[in-house]
Design a protein that fits this description.
Length: 274
Amino acid sequence: MAADLHAHTYFSDAADSPQTLVKLALERGLTTLAVTDHDTFEGNKRARELAEGTGLTIVPGVEVSTYDYQRGHKAHLLVYYPKHTEVLQMYFDFVGEKRRRAGEIMAERAVKRYGLRFRDIDEYARHSGVIFKQHIMAAMMDDGQADGIYGKKYEELFGENGTCIEPILHTETREIITECRRSGGTVVMAHPGTYHGVPLMKELAEKGLIDGIELHHPRNPPAVMEEIKKTAAHFGLFITGGSDYHGAFDSKPTRLGDFTVDDTVVRLLDRKEG
């Protein structure tokens, strides 16, 4: 009984629709799927509607974008079964507007410097309502200026000192995690193997600010997985896992369901009464 607890749709920065994710999950034999778009519930809501009567359980969830200003790194949090979604929605409205403006600036630079058409970029963002870097790169591919979403061209545009990069100033991790917990949801630190996240993971675990840690993930190397296991065991946290599926916009080719946990973990995610 396999559960993939981390997947994205075109309502944030992935290529596929909620319909496609539900179809793929059923084809792969998953019994449970968490659609966890960045800072929006829309993809999860649609997936739950589409999965009714199919035997596939869609776990209410979302991935919250934050920034650890003490260490100078991004940090992502997975929140499952939030009981008071309005608490998080206020933050999503706030960060969504900042992301929207940053996306427009990046698109304008790509139009000016690479001759792209704004409407071609915007077409990829029609579902999310926000232009992500992946949308610009998809337009670059259509125009024959890039042979993939990621690689040298991506670094040229969006790497350090990139030609089109526009930073988004996210809310401090410790501040927004308070709101995540106030929502009544179960809070899991996502993929500590990215953004140099192990020190933050240990801090949050020690302070009792997270309920679990994402262990099974395509970008958690073996050494980090060992640190996750030790930390989870020491502080009594449970472990989760998921493919972090983005479809054609994946940075590392991964199929939905490649990284899963047993369905019994899902009961732990919904243990809170809010």
